[in-house]
Amino acid sequence: MAGLTMRRIAKxxxxxxxxxxxxxxxxxxxxxFAILSSWGGVQALLAHRIAHAMHLNGSKVVPRIxxxxxxxxxGIEIHPGARIGAEFFIDHGSGVVIGETAEIGDRVTVYQGVxxxxxxxxxxxxxxxxxxxxxxxxxxxxxxxxxIGHGAKIGANTVxxxxxxxxxxxxxxxxxxVRVEGRRPEGPDTDWIHLPDPIADAIKNLSDRLAEIERRxxxxxxxxAEAEVRELRPKQGPTTAGG
Length: 243
Fold this sequence. Notes:
This protein is an alpha/beta fold. It has a single domain (2-193), classed as UDP N-Acetylglucosamine Acyltransferase, domain 1 (3 Solenoid). It is 35% helix and 15% strand. The protein has helices at residues 2-23, 32-38, 40-56, 61-74, 198-221; strands at residues 77-78, 83-84, 89-91, 97-98, 103-104, 109-111, 115-117, 129-130, 135-136, 141-143, 147-148, 153-154, 159-160, 169-171, 176-178. The chain has a six-stranded mixed sheet with strand order 3-6-9-12-14-15. A five-stranded parallel sheet has the order 1-4-7-10-13. A four-stranded parallel sheet has the order 2-5-8-11, with no helix packed on it. Helix 1 (2-23) runs antiparallel to helix 3 and helix 3 (40-56) packs antiparallel against helix 4. The model is unreliable at 239-243 (pLDDT under 50).
């Protein structure tokens, strides 16, 4: 049994190293030994593979010691009970927290500062389920037993508290589900700069409508379309700069 477990762990680690080479440009010309010895995300995942196997075999104390040592070394905390699929990659990784009942599919990419956490003190399933080919941006917080569908992308610093459908992109706090126009959000993609912002779009639409109403009123009144802006009250006393 131990031999089968070690062979399974070795196979998973080879897939994890291959995932690091595929998704991190800095790792593409680096040896396997260098990746295992200096990539914190790969080290944390290797430690988790071992701790998780021991956890499944009924060990209580040693897996938690491994988690504690790994957190001190890499800044990444993965509960030994979390289930993680093949080709998982944590880029940079500092500040990543993955809870006990989290379930992560294959070919998932996570960036630094991500939390897969719970809400409140409920028991049972209380952490997210991440399906295959999901990318989660820096600082994102996924809270509670939500399900993130296949191929979804979670934008940087997004807070997700509801389920996300397949092939969707989520941005904002709280997270808003959007679509990447003209392309499918499939696989790792670090272009978090050009993601759509539904709040900004709504404000722009309101601004455009207000400008159109002002133009129509100006036409009816025969006046200028420019609105006059007045201060509510005159300035008095010292300035806020201390003058």
